[in-house]
Write a structure and sequence with these properties.
- The model has no long low-confidence stretch (mean pLDDT 92).
- The radius of gyration is 19 Å and the shape is elongated.
- It has helices at residues 3-8, 11-22, 30-41, 46-56, 60-69, 89-93, 96-107, 152-156, and strands spanning 81-86, 120-125, 137-139, 142-144.
- It folds into two domains: 3-69; 81-156, Glutaredoxin.
- By secondary structure, the chain is an alpha+beta fold.
- The structure holds FE2/S2 (inorganic) cluster.
- The site of FE2/S2 (inorganic) cluster has 11 residues, from helix 6.
Length: 160
Amino acid sequence: MCEECRELVDPKEVKLEEVFAKYKNSKGALIPILQEAQEIYGYLPEHVLKLISQATRLPVAKIYGVATFYAQFRLTPIGRNVISMCLGTACHVRGGAKVLEAIEKEAQVKDGQTSEDGRFTLEIVNCIGACGLAPVISINSNVHGKLVAEQIPEILAQYE
Ligand code: FES
């Protein structure tokens, strides 16, 4: 791509072109391409799946199938705050399911999804190494422990 063209094109797309160039002659490079595309965009938008399809000459349906098969790939943007709800053994036995229910209700979001207002993304995880504080959630990098469902509205209110 010439320098003038680079200035006209979305910088993320320029980076994506560089990824395509890097894997141009590599067979079976779909996973690393998807990983690097997700690093660039934060998730895998539909138009990016189409660009990957053109570059790899693989059908969009196949790329979509791979992107939805692996939990590491996201097809929707990440919210402003990421809630990681631990449902490892300790958190599970100490009432994690009720805390999860309260989060889903208060944040209007389900596991692996982002709320419509873009405020929260929820992911269920297995043990974040704070079992002594079970049940535990982390929001961004803040850990909240020894939770009961009733505390959730007040905690979530701290995150705009
Ligand atoms: S099981 Fe939840 S922090 Fe370990």
